[in-house]
Amino acid sequence: MSAAGSAQWRGAYEAFGAAHIDPDPDGDLQTATLYVRLPGQYLDTESDTHGNRYRTYSSEGGRYLSVDPIGKTAGSSLYHYARSNPIRYVDPLGLVTVILTVRDFGIGAHSAVYGDAGPNNEPFLYDPAGSYVPPNGEPRGSGDMYVGRSADLDAYRAFHEANGSTVEMITLPTTPQEEAAIAARAEAQGGAAPFTCTAAVSSAVGGVCGLRSYWLPDSLSKAARRARDENQCKGRTK
Predict the structure, then answer these.
(1) Secondary structure E strands in 161-219
(2) What's this model's pTM, rounded to 2 decimal places?
(3) Last residue within a domain, chosen from 15, 49, 66
(4) Fewest beta carbons less than 10 Å away: which of 48, 68, 124, 166?
(5) Could you give the maximum distance between any two Cα atoms of the chain, in Å?
(6) Average model confidence (pLDDT) for the chain?
């Protein structure tokens, strides 16, 4: 808006973000430029795509141009935007937090949590009292948290499946601020004693998405599924 209250720029958006821009709606021959598109997205004028920090999005196709960094955990489509329902959901970063439950014979045996915006905005995997060893052989520190390339969900799943377990991954749409807080709490509390992994993960999550304190992996996974299915999170895809 100008000082006189007239519009200086106007944009109309289609459902998947294609923009119809009027750079001079008041007709004063003074044009304005604004590169903001869908929530969290910024127009790249050279490629006519939208960047949102971690991935590149095409409004023409209504999909991302690179796969979701959390792999198959994201769902059946690794390229879709906002669950392919942009009228109801938004996806500013194209990323999510993941509650992990390792199961033996169908029973929850271990809990962990993954996030994509931890220390230095790198992915993190908090695996308290866990046994996971990343492919690069990075030793498990006293804090039980991996950061960067070692925080690899596909490798985490493969490691446990090779030992006869299954891994349930529940995605939750947290905000970057919530993820940073989860990582900070995990880092502060460090490793956990045997059989207290779920309590440690619950403490790190710290009430995000309405999750409380749980002692059993199955209790935490059930609560996480309910939070996801009932849209209890206030973050990226609500």
Answers:
(1) 166-172
(2) 0.65
(3) 66
(4) 48
(5) 71
(6) 82
